Amino acid sequence: KITSIEGRILYNSRGSKTIEVDVESEGKFVGRVCAPSGASVGKYEAVSFRNGRPEDSLQVLKENSQKFIGLESSDLKGIHDTLKSFDNSSNYSEIGGALAFAVTIASMESASKALDQPLFKTLSNESSFKFPFPLGNILGGGAHAGPGTPDIQEILICATGAKTIEESIETNLAVHKELRSVLEKEDPNFTNGRGDEGGWAPKLENQKALEVSAMACENLGFTLGKEVSLGVDFASSTQWNEEKSKYVYDRAGFENTTSEQIDFAADIIEKFKLIYAEDAVHEEAFEDMSELTAKFPNTLITGDDLTVTNKGILSKAIDKKSCNAAILKVNQAGSLYDALEFANLANENNIRLITSHRSGESTDSQISHIGLATKSKMLKVGVVGGERVAKLNELLRLSEHDLIRGMAEV
Ligand code: PGA
Ligand code: ZN
After folding, report:
1. ipTM of this predicted complex?
2. Which residue from 79, 68, 231, 92 is spatially nearest to 154, judged by alpha carbons?
3. Which residues contact 291 (CB under 8 A, 6 or more apart)?
4. Helix runs in 272-357, H state only
5. Which of 128, 135, 127, 199 is nearest to 162 (CA)?
6. Which residues are known binding-site members for Mg(2+)?
7. pTM of the predicted model, to two decimals?
8. Measured from the CA of 235, which atom of ligand 1 is nearest?
9. Nearest to residue 51, comparing CAs of 88, 116, 98, 8?
10. Could you list the pLDDT tens digit for every one of the 410 residues in the chain?
11. 8-state DSSP, 209
């Protein structure tokens, strides 16, 4: 049973303020979770903090902490309902999604410690688990990097041919490293600067950025689509201009109509044999996403801003066949309970899940467990940077666990 719950203000990897919560059970089992936050935030995601202020969310926790005392820390629904008892909004605007995130995951971590078992086991009744393939940012642009970098937000690597979690992490690291050499040759003024998620942030336009990424893979003797595959997070809502009804590529200097955008994404998917294409059109373009999903059955046509880890919105995407994969970011949903509901709906409908970090992260690693428990096919957590490597290192620790056997089937 929960004996205390307390929060504090800390900083995320971008140096912005965030909330950390400690949930204690039986006076000694402490679950501690620090909330992440995004930069390319979906219109329909949970609000991060009450009034946009971490301090205000923390105040709400202080005022309501007594309501949690005596609850079973493993009773996720009970914890969730208690949060909802003082936030009736649909998007956690009263308490902030960050608070819902931290309280629910910290409770489950506290319960795991009391039960002396890993978090993924507490979150799932399955008797065996498979590792999701790490998917990581090797080149960043858009909202995650400065002027001159690609408009496209993320170019990602995934070692789709890897047989073990060790091999998949090693391969991603090797490609990230090789890309640095390629970029240094390409541009003698390249500073080795990186974007928010650890991908290199060179001054290159979109096509060139994709070409150097492919070159890094080939230099290592890998064939795209075999040992390794590339992915892209277009994060197209950041380009979408509602008034013009066009996608505006400021940095590259062109604009796409909605049909041009579909062709733009389709060309990239084909040319670079992408295994993964996220938010290739803007967050309300469900029909345009359907076109891509029909056209590319062998690519994970993935919703992030499109589906915002929201069960109702995912239902709509399923009805319209708008995607065959979806990002799971617990803080988009708010509470872990909401996120697991979303995961169930996705799994029941053959929507492949990708559990994901945010661009502003903590050094916590619970999402590695959440990826396992939700049967995620991929875990999108970056390649380098302390806050990214923390999640990968946790997967390596978990490889000592005999309940987890082999890699997921993507
Ligand atoms: P965010 O970006 O965490 O900045 O929202 C990540 C993404 O769009 O996938
Ligand atoms: Zn995204």
Report:
1. 0.98
2. 231
3. 262
4. 286-295, 311-319, 330-333, 336-348
5. 135
6. 233, 278, 304
7. 0.98
8. 8
9. 98
10. 999 999 999 999 999 999 999 999 999 999 999 999 999 898 999 999 999 999 999 999 999 999 999 999 999 999 999 999 999 999 999 999 999 999 999 999 999 999 999 999 999 999 999 999 999 999 999 999 999 999 999 999 999 999 999 999 999 999 999 999 999 999 999 999 999 999 999 999 999 999 999 999 999 999 999 999 999 999 999 999 999 999 999 999 999 999 999 999 999 999 999 999 999 999 999 999 999 999 999 999 999 999 999 999 999 999 999 999 999 999 999 999 999 999 999 999 999 999 999 999 999 999 999 999 999 999 999 999 999 999 999 999 999 999 999 999 99
11. H
What is the SS3 assignment for 404? strand
Is 329 designated active site? Answer: yes
Q: Is 377 a catalytic residue?
A: no
Q: Among residues 121, 203, 329, 391, which one is catalytic?
A: 329
Q: What ligand is nearest to the CA atom of residue 303?
A: 2
Write phi, then psi, for 240 (nearest 5 degrees). -65, 125
Phi and psi at residue 114, to the nearest 5°: -65, -35
Are β-strands 154-158 and 133-140 bridged in parallel, bridged antiparallel, or unpaired?
antiparallel
Distance between Cα 193 and ligand 1 center (Å): 19
Best mutation site among 308, 330, 358 for ligand 1 pocket (most ligand atoms within 8 Å of CB): 358
Are 12 and 98 within 8 A, CB to CB? no
For residue 366, the cross-strand partners are: none
Ligand 1 contact, 235 CB (< 6 A): yes
CA of 38 to the centre of ligand 1 (A): 5
d(CA 191, ligand 2 centre) in Å: 26
